[in-house]
Every structure is written in C-alpha cells, then in structure tokens.
Known about the structure:
The chain is mainly alpha-helical and 311 residues long. Helix content is 81%, strand content 0%. The chain has helices at residues 2-33, 38-43, 49-59, 65-77, 91-126, 131-145, 148-162, 174-204, 207-214, 219-257, 262-271, 275-303, 305-310.
Amino acid sequence: MWRAxxxxxxxxxxxxxxxxxxxxxxxxxxxxxxPGDPAQARLGQNATEERLAEVRAELGVDQPLVTQYVRFxxxxxxxxxxxxxxxxxxxxxxxxxxxxxxAVLATTAMAIAVVVGMGxxxxxxxxxxxxxxxLLRITVLTGVSIPVFWMGLILISFAAVRWGWFPxxxxxxxxxIVLPAVTxxxxxxxxxxxxxxxxxxxxxxxxxxxxxxxxxxxxxxxLLKYALKQALAPIATIIGLQFGAxxxxxxxxxxxxxxxxxxxxxxxxxxxxxxxYVRAAVIFTTVAYVTVNLAVDLLYRWIDPxxxxxx
Length: 311
C-alpha cells in the first residue's frame, strides 16, 4: 500500500514540476514578444543608440530567445531569479520581501473564508428552506457577485471613511490588515459556504445519518461529528481551489489598499516592463498555487480512503 502511495505522490510531483516548467516557458515567451524595449525603459527616451546597445547586451536581451530561456532556466535552478531592469536589485530579494506581505494577507483572508464560510454553510444546512437559510443564501450570492475591487471600495467608504473603524491605506499594523483581508476573503467565503451547504445537505440525507437519528443521537452531534466528517472531502477540495482565487484577487486588493505585496508590485513591473520581476512573480504564484492543490489532493486521499483504492 505504501509503495502505491509513494508512486502516486511521485507522479503528482512530476506533473506539478512539468506544469511549472510550461508556465515559465509561456510567460517567458509572452513577455519577450510584447512590444517595447527594456533598455529604453531603464534609460529613458533620450538615450543614445550606443548606450541602448550596451544595456541590451548587459541585460542579455540582444541574444536569441532560446538562448535567453536556457540561461534563465539555468539561473532558476540555482535560485537566481535575475536582476530588476529598473533598479538593479536582485529579484529574489524583492519577491521574498513582497511575498511575505502577500502570504500574510492571503493566509488571514483564507482563515476568515474557511471559518465563516463553513460556519454559514453548516447553519444553512441545519435549517434548510427556512428564513435563515434563505437570508444566508442571498448573502452568499451577493458575496459571489461583487467584484473584489468594488467590495474594497465599499469597505473603505463605510468602515474607514464614514465610521473610522479601520485605516483605509497602508500596511504594518493589525488594524490595517482587517479591511483588505475581509475584502479578499469575500469571494472564497461565499464559494466555501455554498459548497459546505450542498455537501452537508447530501450527508444529512444519507442512510447513515437517518440511522443515527433513529437511535436518538443528538442533532448537534450528528451535524458536527458525523455529517461534517462525511462532507469534508469536497469542502477541502474547494478550499484548495479557492487559494488560486486569493492569488488573483490579491493583485486588485493590494492596489486598492496600497499594500506593498507581490500583486501590487507585479502591476507596477508590468507597466514598467520589468520582465525579471514579472516572471519571478508569476513563478512564485504558480508554485504556491500548485503546491497548495497538491497538498489538498493528498489530503483528499487521506480523508476519503476510497480514493486510495481506486488510484
């Protein structure tokens, strides 16, 4: 059994590595084929052709695309993500600095989404088709429908400007985390709540649960101990998938709230054609996303033994 599990893990890791490699190639080609000149972006419009040629040679962008990509992969294997075209600093240092900020924001937002989303889904499933269920479902639908940037502006208008509860801009204090974390958590919270409700209703309608009710097991015990455990596998899967939504939503959220995270700096790098930083940011987010999904996949197999038997 353990050999089969190790074989499965090895295959999934190999597929994950291949996926990351494909992403690096696509991003590299797309960035290099976009209009513009990195040397021009660094030196400005008044630079001479001789100086532009020197900077192109220094950056390596005057070489064939294949040569540039092979050199990029070689540096990547050694942990070298390149040097910023604009400020000359190592990109790895910038990614480490901004990645920490984004990781704190994403982790806080996911914690809010999981706790509140699962709580809403469980309460809704416990009172199906009642007024409370209807109210919660409308609230969840609203959360799915509102764009991230619009939710951020709403929270700033009321919670920051009108009521003065939290600061609207900046990063570094616990108070400054609240509004962007709630903004970023809104969409995954709604999705998790919907999945939790659906999975819980399916579990509560199973023969196993009806047997427990026939033996007069308390409803709270049935709900939180048996039904939740039975419904946990699809909920765990959707939580992992929503991590990708957090990564995508972080770009807008960080821009709205002025957070110096990887999303905001990626937008700045795209506008300034700082290709090394953009490549590194995409690789960072891709690795984070596929790693979380790999972990969720393995967790799913641990929660549901049937997945191990059918692999």
